[in-house]
Design goal:
This protein has 50 residues and is mostly beta strands. The chain has a domain of 31 residues. It contains no helices and two strands.
């Protein structure tokens, strides 16, 4: 599964490929504007807020 993250204020886009769907349960039932810790994504997202 791929996670496509876009920040319109800076036109920055990041595509993260994930093999483990258990890591995605952090994002289940979240609305579009809700912030979530990106540590669940792995090393690529450490320290970021999605």
């Amino acid at each position: 599964m791929e996670l496509n993250i876009f920040f319109p204020a800076t036109c920055c886009q990041k595509l993260i490929e994930m093999d483990d769907e258990c890591k995605l349960c952090t994002f289940y039932e979240k609305q579009r504007a809700t912030e979530a810790a990106s540590a669940a994504v792995g090393e690529e997202g450490k320290g970021d807020v999605i």
